[in-house]
Amino acid sequence: MTNTTPDLTAVVLVGTLSPSPAPSSSELLARQVLSALSAHGVTGTVIRLVDHDIRPGVQADMGDGDAWPAIRAQILAAHILVVATPIWMGQPSSVTKRALERLDAELSEKDDQGRLLTYGKVAAVAVVGNEDGAHHVSAELFQALDDVGFTIPAGAVTYWVGRAMEGVDYQDLDQTPESVASTTATLAAHTAHLARLLAREPYPPS
Fold first, then answer.
1. Which positions of the chain have pLDDT values less than 50?
2. The NADPH-dependent FMN reductase-like domain covers which part of the protein (predicted)?
3. How many domains is the chain built from?
4. 165 within a domain of the structure (yes/no)
5. Which residues of 135-174 are buried (b: 16+ CB within 10 A; e: fewer)?
């Protein structure tokens, strides 16, 4: 499909445990995903979650000082959500899990036709680590994102995992492996395609 209208937007949540301005392999891969999406007419924003005071809880707003409402507003205004996380102990990072917990509030938010506000939004995932677990982590994220109303396209994950029990990070590589680059390109093409279709033809009320 060559027609790039309507214009699409994306929000990328980065679940690194390292506050800015520390380098982050998760953010590096996240920005590569965003760059790949730009080839399909998508503009976007990267949010490093650990830089923000996201309160624990499952409500849309956990009170004074909670940074989640502003992040949520950006997510709801976008067509695409990308969640990028490192693997720690075989799991998504704790800040990534907190964002998923906060998204649980979307189950009680509906439009005037009874649809979740997240219906019609597309989600994709990026995972990095130097231990096994990319498939497990992406499966956890996909299920959670589907549960709260996001649509998952085919091939919606890109990842890199180094050799287990060694210390090489994704950001330490001299260049992006071709397998990662091609997988990221596929993710971007499919995600933008599906997001554009849903922007034109929203889900019907049920």
1. 1-2, 4
2. 11-157
3. 1
4. yes
5. eebbebbbebbeebbbbbbeebbbbbbbeeeeeebbeeee
